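Run folding on both entries below.
>entry_1
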Amino acid sequence: MDALERVLRIRRELATERWPPERFRQAAAEGKRRWAEAEDLFGVQWSMLKDAVALISPDFKMPPAEEEAAWSVDVPGMRNVGPWVAVSFVRWERCPTTAGLPNPYEPWIEIWEHGGGFSVEHGQFVDVYDSEFTPLGCIVVRRA
Protein backbone atom coordinates (compact mmCIF):
# COMPACT_ATOMS: atom_id res chain seq x y z
CA MET A 1 0.00 0.00 0.00
CA ASP A 2 1.25 3.49 -0.80
CA ALA A 3 2.57 5.51 2.18
CA LEU A 4 0.06 8.34 1.78
CA GLU A 5 -2.85 5.95 1.39
CA ARG A 6 -1.66 4.11 4.45
CA VAL A 7 -1.62 7.17 6.73
CA LEU A 8 -4.96 8.38 5.41
CA ARG A 9 -6.52 5.12 6.64
CA ILE A 10 -5.38 5.59 10.25
CA ARG A 11 -8.28 5.85 12.66
CA ARG A 12 -8.19 4.64 16.27
CA GLU A 13 -11.66 3.16 16.12
CA LEU A 14 -10.91 1.27 12.88
CA ALA A 15 -7.85 -0.69 14.00
CA THR A 16 -8.33 -4.09 12.38
CA GLU A 17 -5.99 -6.07 14.61
CA ARG A 18 -5.41 -4.93 18.16
CA TRP A 19 -1.97 -5.90 19.37
CA PRO A 20 -1.06 -7.33 22.77
CA PRO A 21 0.92 -4.92 24.98
CA GLU A 22 4.31 -6.49 24.23
CA ARG A 23 3.89 -5.90 20.48
CA PHE A 24 3.45 -2.15 21.06
CA ARG A 25 6.63 -2.12 23.16
CA GLN A 26 8.50 -3.99 20.42
CA ALA A 27 7.35 -1.51 17.78
CA ALA A 28 8.55 1.42 19.89
CA ALA A 29 11.94 -0.24 20.37
CA GLU A 30 12.13 -0.81 16.61
CA GLY A 31 11.31 2.86 16.01
CA LYS A 32 14.21 3.87 18.25
CA ARG A 33 16.55 1.37 16.54
CA ARG A 34 15.65 2.60 13.04
CA TRP A 35 16.09 6.22 14.08
CA ALA A 36 19.60 5.54 15.41
CA GLU A 37 20.43 3.51 12.30
CA ALA A 38 19.31 6.33 9.99
CA GLU A 39 21.27 8.92 11.97
CA ASP A 40 24.39 6.79 11.58
CA LEU A 41 23.75 6.14 7.88
CA PHE A 42 23.33 9.81 6.97
CA GLY A 43 25.61 11.34 9.61
CA VAL A 44 22.92 13.74 10.86
CA GLN A 45 21.02 14.16 14.11
CA TRP A 46 17.36 15.06 14.49
CA SER A 47 14.64 14.74 17.09
CA MET A 48 13.30 11.22 16.63
CA LEU A 49 9.71 12.06 15.73
CA LYS A 50 10.51 15.13 13.62
CA ASP A 51 11.26 15.37 9.87
CA ALA A 52 14.58 13.70 9.03
CA VAL A 53 14.24 14.40 5.30
CA ALA A 54 14.51 18.14 5.99
CA LEU A 55 18.12 17.49 7.09
CA ILE A 56 19.00 14.60 4.79
CA SER A 57 17.66 16.13 1.58
CA PRO A 58 16.70 19.75 2.32
CA ASP A 59 15.73 20.54 -1.28
CA PHE A 60 13.16 17.74 -1.46
CA LYS A 61 9.56 18.88 -1.77
CA MET A 62 6.48 16.69 -1.89
CA PRO A 63 3.70 17.68 -4.27
CA PRO A 64 1.57 20.25 -2.38
CA ALA A 65 -1.61 18.17 -2.60
CA GLU A 66 0.13 15.14 -1.08
CA GLU A 67 1.69 17.18 1.69
CA GLU A 68 -1.65 18.80 2.50
CA ALA A 69 -3.34 15.38 2.56
CA ALA A 70 -0.67 13.98 4.91
CA TRP A 71 -1.11 16.96 7.26
CA SER A 72 -4.85 16.26 7.38
CA VAL A 73 -4.41 12.82 8.95
CA ASP A 74 -6.52 12.44 12.07
CA VAL A 75 -3.98 10.58 14.17
CA PRO A 76 -4.88 9.09 17.53
CA GLY A 77 -3.42 12.01 19.47
CA MET A 78 -1.67 11.82 22.76
CA ARG A 79 -1.03 15.29 24.14
CA ASN A 80 1.91 16.40 22.04
CA VAL A 81 2.05 14.04 19.07
CA GLY A 82 0.35 15.13 15.90
CA PRO A 83 0.19 14.51 12.18
CA TRP A 84 3.81 15.57 11.59
CA VAL A 85 4.83 11.95 12.27
CA ALA A 86 2.55 10.85 9.42
CA VAL A 87 3.95 13.62 7.19
CA SER A 88 7.51 12.57 8.02
CA PHE A 89 6.64 8.95 7.21
CA VAL A 90 5.31 9.90 3.77
CA ARG A 91 8.20 12.29 3.06
CA TRP A 92 10.72 9.51 3.84
CA GLU A 93 8.96 7.21 1.37
CA ARG A 94 8.74 9.88 -1.34
CA CYS A 95 12.26 11.34 -1.12
CA PRO A 96 14.63 9.75 -3.66
CA THR A 97 17.48 9.80 -1.11
CA THR A 98 15.59 7.81 1.53
CA ALA A 99 12.96 5.83 -0.43
CA GLY A 100 13.53 2.11 -0.13
CA LEU A 101 15.52 2.40 3.10
CA PRO A 102 14.02 1.25 6.42
CA ASN A 103 11.59 4.00 7.37
CA PRO A 104 12.23 5.17 10.96
CA TYR A 105 8.61 6.35 11.25
CA GLU A 106 6.99 3.07 10.18
CA PRO A 107 6.92 1.45 13.65
CA TRP A 108 5.06 4.51 14.98
CA ILE A 109 2.59 4.30 12.08
CA GLU A 110 2.09 0.61 12.92
CA ILE A 111 1.31 1.52 16.53
CA TRP A 112 -1.45 3.82 15.28
CA GLU A 113 -2.67 1.24 12.77
CA HIS A 114 -3.13 -1.25 15.59
CA GLY A 115 -5.02 1.13 17.84
CA GLY A 116 -2.22 2.34 20.11
CA GLY A 117 -0.61 5.69 20.69
CA PHE A 118 2.46 7.45 22.03
CA SER A 119 3.51 10.78 23.48
CA VAL A 120 6.74 12.61 24.15
CA GLU A 121 7.77 13.58 27.68
CA HIS A 122 10.41 16.21 28.37
CA GLY A 123 11.94 15.67 24.92
CA GLN A 124 13.66 12.53 26.19
CA PHE A 125 11.00 9.85 26.72
CA VAL A 126 8.40 8.40 24.37
CA ASP A 127 5.51 6.92 26.34
CA VAL A 128 3.71 4.05 24.62
CA TYR A 129 0.01 3.18 25.02
CA ASP A 130 -2.01 0.15 23.96
CA SER A 131 -5.35 0.15 22.15
CA GLU A 132 -7.14 1.05 25.39
CA PHE A 133 -4.61 3.85 25.91
CA THR A 134 -3.24 2.07 28.95
CA PRO A 135 0.38 3.18 29.58
CA LEU A 136 2.86 0.45 28.67
CA GLY A 137 6.08 2.20 29.66
CA CYS A 138 8.47 4.34 27.75
CA ILE A 139 11.62 4.31 25.71
CA VAL A 140 14.41 6.73 26.50
CA VAL A 141 15.83 8.75 23.63
CA ARG A 142 18.27 11.63 23.35
CA ARG A 143 15.99 13.90 21.37
CA ALA A 144 12.35 12.85 21.07
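>entry_2
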Amino acid sequence: MTSASNPPTAVLDIGRIDAVADRIATDWGHHGHTALTAMISQLYTDLAELPPHYTASQRAEATTDAADTTAGELSTLLDDYINQQADRSPVTEYGWVMHTEDRHHALTAALASHTADHLTWWLTNQLADYIADREKDEDRGSD
Protein backbone atom coordinates (compact mmCIF):
# COMPACT_ATOMS: atom_id res chain seq x y z
CA MET A 1 0.00 0.00 0.00
CA THR A 2 1.13 3.52 -0.70
CA SER A 3 0.90 6.11 2.02
CA ALA A 4 2.24 9.52 2.93
CA SER A 5 5.09 7.84 4.79
CA ASN A 6 5.92 5.67 1.78
CA PRO A 7 5.46 7.86 -1.31
CA PRO A 8 6.16 6.51 -4.79
CA THR A 9 9.65 7.21 -6.06
CA ALA A 10 8.65 8.29 -9.55
CA VAL A 11 8.75 11.93 -10.55
CA LEU A 12 5.60 12.56 -12.52
CA ASP A 13 5.64 14.19 -15.91
CA ILE A 14 2.96 16.75 -15.07
CA GLY A 15 3.12 18.20 -18.59
CA ARG A 16 2.31 14.81 -20.04
CA ILE A 17 -0.57 14.28 -17.62
CA ASP A 18 -1.93 17.75 -18.40
CA ALA A 19 -1.70 17.08 -22.15
CA VAL A 20 -3.73 13.87 -21.82
CA ALA A 21 -6.21 15.63 -19.51
CA ASP A 22 -6.63 18.48 -22.00
CA ARG A 23 -7.16 16.01 -24.84
CA ILE A 24 -9.81 14.16 -22.85
CA ALA A 25 -11.58 17.35 -21.74
CA THR A 26 -11.49 19.09 -25.11
CA ASP A 27 -13.36 16.30 -26.86
CA TRP A 28 -15.41 15.10 -23.90
CA GLY A 29 -18.59 13.48 -25.11
CA HIS A 30 -16.91 12.31 -28.31
CA HIS A 31 -14.67 9.74 -26.66
CA GLY A 32 -16.03 6.30 -26.07
CA HIS A 33 -14.86 4.13 -23.19
CA THR A 34 -12.41 2.30 -25.46
CA ALA A 35 -10.75 5.52 -26.63
CA LEU A 36 -10.45 6.80 -23.05
CA THR A 37 -8.97 3.51 -21.93
CA ALA A 38 -6.42 3.61 -24.76
CA MET A 39 -5.31 7.17 -23.92
CA ILE A 40 -4.98 6.40 -20.22
CA SER A 41 -3.30 3.05 -20.86
CA GLN A 42 -0.64 4.76 -22.98
CA LEU A 43 -0.06 7.30 -20.20
CA TYR A 44 0.27 4.53 -17.61
CA THR A 45 2.57 2.55 -19.88
CA ASP A 46 4.87 5.55 -20.20
CA LEU A 47 4.76 6.85 -16.62
CA ALA A 48 3.75 4.13 -14.18
CA GLU A 49 6.20 2.26 -12.02
CA LEU A 50 5.28 -1.40 -12.22
CA PRO A 51 7.01 -4.31 -10.52
CA PRO A 52 10.33 -5.02 -12.27
CA HIS A 53 9.54 -8.74 -12.48
CA TYR A 54 6.55 -8.10 -14.76
CA THR A 55 6.88 -9.35 -18.30
CA ALA A 56 5.88 -7.12 -21.20
CA SER A 57 2.51 -8.85 -21.45
CA GLN A 58 1.91 -8.51 -17.70
CA ARG A 59 2.76 -4.82 -17.91
CA ALA A 60 0.37 -4.36 -20.85
CA GLU A 61 -2.42 -6.25 -19.12
CA ALA A 62 -1.95 -4.38 -15.83
CA THR A 63 -1.89 -0.94 -17.45
CA THR A 64 -4.89 -1.71 -19.64
CA ASP A 65 -6.91 -3.08 -16.71
CA ALA A 66 -6.03 -0.08 -14.54
CA ALA A 67 -6.79 2.31 -17.41
CA ASP A 68 -10.17 0.63 -17.95
CA THR A 69 -11.04 1.21 -14.30
CA THR A 70 -9.80 4.80 -14.45
CA ALA A 71 -11.81 5.48 -17.62
CA GLY A 72 -14.98 4.29 -15.91
CA GLU A 73 -14.30 6.49 -12.89
CA LEU A 74 -13.52 9.50 -15.08
CA SER A 75 -16.69 9.03 -17.09
CA THR A 76 -18.76 9.14 -13.93
CA LEU A 77 -16.78 12.03 -12.41
CA LEU A 78 -16.88 14.24 -15.49
CA ASP A 79 -20.48 13.47 -16.42
CA ASP A 80 -21.56 14.30 -12.85
CA TYR A 81 -19.65 17.59 -13.03
CA ILE A 82 -21.28 18.50 -16.35
CA ASN A 83 -24.73 17.70 -14.95
CA GLN A 84 -24.06 19.95 -11.94
CA GLN A 85 -22.92 22.78 -14.20
CA ALA A 86 -25.94 22.36 -16.48
CA ASP A 87 -28.18 23.10 -13.50
CA ARG A 88 -26.27 26.31 -12.69
CA SER A 89 -27.15 29.71 -13.98
CA PRO A 90 -24.67 31.24 -16.44
CA VAL A 91 -24.45 34.27 -14.13
CA THR A 92 -21.04 34.68 -12.47
CA GLU A 93 -20.45 35.59 -8.84
CA TYR A 94 -20.07 39.19 -10.02
CA GLY A 95 -23.50 39.23 -11.67
CA TRP A 96 -22.22 38.97 -15.25
CA VAL A 97 -23.84 36.60 -17.69
CA MET A 98 -21.27 34.29 -19.29
CA HIS A 99 -21.53 33.93 -23.03
CA THR A 100 -21.94 30.40 -24.33
CA GLU A 101 -18.40 30.26 -25.70
CA ASP A 102 -16.91 31.54 -22.42
CA ARG A 103 -18.96 29.04 -20.45
CA HIS A 104 -17.75 26.27 -22.77
CA HIS A 105 -14.11 27.27 -22.22
CA ALA A 106 -14.60 27.44 -18.45
CA LEU A 107 -16.25 24.02 -18.42
CA THR A 108 -13.51 22.49 -20.58
CA ALA A 109 -10.83 23.94 -18.28
CA ALA A 110 -12.61 22.53 -15.24
CA LEU A 111 -12.94 19.10 -16.89
CA ALA A 112 -9.21 19.15 -17.71
CA SER A 113 -8.37 20.07 -14.13
CA HIS A 114 -10.56 17.29 -12.70
CA THR A 115 -9.06 14.81 -15.17
CA ALA A 116 -5.47 15.81 -14.39
CA ASP A 117 -6.15 15.53 -10.66
CA HIS A 118 -7.69 12.08 -11.08
CA LEU A 119 -4.88 10.79 -13.32
CA THR A 120 -2.25 12.16 -10.93
CA TRP A 121 -4.00 10.48 -8.01
CA TRP A 122 -4.01 7.19 -9.88
CA LEU A 123 -0.32 7.47 -10.77
CA THR A 124 0.80 8.51 -7.29
CA ASN A 125 -1.49 6.46 -5.04
CA GLN A 126 -4.09 4.24 -6.60
CA LEU A 127 -2.03 2.36 -9.17
CA ALA A 128 0.35 0.93 -6.56
CA ASP A 129 -2.62 -0.34 -4.54
CA TYR A 130 -4.26 -1.68 -7.69
CA ILE A 131 -1.10 -3.62 -8.63
CA ALA A 132 -0.70 -4.97 -5.08
CA ASP A 133 -4.32 -6.18 -5.05
CA ARG A 134 -3.85 -7.68 -8.49
CA GLU A 135 -0.77 -9.62 -7.36
CA LYS A 136 -2.64 -10.91 -4.28
CA ASP A 137 -5.45 -12.12 -6.53
CA GLU A 138 -2.95 -13.83 -8.84
CA ASP A 139 -1.25 -15.50 -5.86
CA ARG A 140 -4.60 -16.78 -4.61
CA GLY A 141 -5.40 -18.11 -8.07
CA SER A 142 -2.18 -20.10 -8.26
CA ASP A 143 -2.79 -21.86 -4.91
